[in-house]
Amino acid sequence: MKNNTKVSEFILLGLTSVTELQFPLVIMFTLIYLITAIGNMRMITLILLDSHLHTPMYFFLSNLSLVDFGYSSTVTPKVLVGLLSEDKVISYNACAAQMFFFAMFATVESYLLASMAYDHYAAVCKPLHYTITMTKSMCTHLALGSYAIGFLNASIQIGETFCFSFYKSNVIHHFFCDIPAVMTMTCSDRHTSELTLGLISSFDVFFAILIIMTSYMSVFTTVLKMHTGKGNRKPLSTCDSHLNAMSLFYGTAIMYLQPSSSHSMDTDKIASVFYTMVIPMLNPVVYCMRNKVVESAFKKVAEKANVLYV
Fold first, then answer.
1. What residue stretches are annotated with the G-protein coupled receptors family 1 profile domain (predicted)?
2. How many domains does the chain have?
3. Which of 49, 243, 280, 299 stands the most exposed, by the fewest C-beta atoms within 10 Å?
4. How far is CA 95 from CA 26, 92, 238, in A?
């Protein structure tokens, strides 16, 4: 592309250039996406249909499932199209849209996990005031606040990234329009924008982690004050799934926030596969494991469906 021609589309180099790996990757990513879609939609449907799951914890979990499905769908279908047809071109507007929705869903997930930690804190540390604290209005405000912050963060990310002109190159060394990969193609001085985006992303992640850590410190302190063994295990068992999901999400988020100079592009791509495809697939599995309430709800819905069918 000539230096004086403004970029109107980008070329995604993809995950690998090895032809022999493309078909196995198509199979693997297709299975991952199907499991993600079915698992998250199943969770949302169960929570909507079973009145026993109309609680704050499952309200947040249904939103988490929706967000997981959303940001997996933002990336995976385009990756599969590129692998199947070798069509690696993405338009300027489509690239901006993909970047926007990915940034928004990732931010929303971060704050939903923080809201779920606060819900656990209220349930374990303030059980007598739980119904007064975690009202429908409170849960709705926390969820809407998460979406609002996600929208604002994504808008800033897009504004800071696409305020530059792209004349030099239109080749993105990635399999989706990730902000750091796109920023490297600009001809302008991007130092200030990179610093701004880094500070905003770091604040979102570490502020949410602070809320989670504060909530769970209170939870563990309260549990340690309990005398019976059963009393110790029951509150902690309700937090297991959330702690596992939180560890998966923030573990990769912190890796994502590391300076690009500290790791190779291949390492960045592998980490990206994990947080764009694998985590959205694992969350429904994590929350269903050893969850007798979800298993019971699924059996009830299945029985009702069989009765209606017969």
1. 39-287
2. 1
3. 299
4. 21, 5, 40
